[in-house]
Amino acid sequence: MRRSFLILIAVCFISLFSAASTYAAEGNSDNWLDETKLDSGLVGVSYDITKGSKLKVLIKKGNTTYTYDLNQSNKFEYFSLQSDNGTYNISVLQNTSGTKYKLLQSKDITLNLQDSSSAYVGSIQNINWNESELATKKAAELTKNKASDEEKVKAIYEFIISEIKYDSNLAKNVTSNYIPNIDNVFKAKKGICYDYSTLFAAMTRSVGIPTKLVMGTSEYVKEYHAWNNVYINGKWITIDTTVDAALSGKKAVTMNKDSSKYVAAKVY
């Protein structure tokens, strides 16, 4: 993934946040916000997206802000509350012109998870999965007779690094709003680092294993990169299926990567 992808997100955020502070919220209905999955570290947002309109969701806790496009009209899309317990502000903004946005809705909610890893199991906008998909059915098949989480992760990891190839053409043309579709990646058997890490996260999450999708930089890759952190035996380990798929068959690879060689910018 190109480094310009991160820069574009940063620029958009600055414009959004500065604009949002100048507008008052429209309406008082809470129907736009679903808090029923807070015990899983998730919040849902739904809004009527009129033709030609562009909406953003901002999730802010302290100095950390995540910005998302709202893609589906009148249908809840779910997002992680990945900045630990505490108070979050959830906002919906509408583009008015250029980089200017107005605030439509805003609400503070409190997250109080007993186990912070539970925020990394559910289906969210950019790790969107359900049990009927080909990829998750394959995950169930691969892990059916595996006793431990480590064995399950290993089975999914080995499947991905042996079956999914890197898509150089997509890497050259990927857009800033690109979100992988896990079954499309599964069927095409190719993708960029974002596809690898999203597919891996969806498959491991679908068998109950907490998995983070992480974006940032790595000593193994020159460009902006995506990889996974997986919760096994009480600790988070770093797994990079993109790098290992490229090396598979050429040299020996180990599933557990040195986390000191990775710097996270965003975590989902």
TrEMBL record:
SMART domains the record matches: TGc
Domain Transglutaminase-like, first and last residues per copy: 185-243
Signal peptide: 1-24
Coiled coil: none
Alphabetically ordered keywords of this record: Signal
Protein name: Transglutaminase-like domain-containing protein
Protein source organism: Cohnella abietis
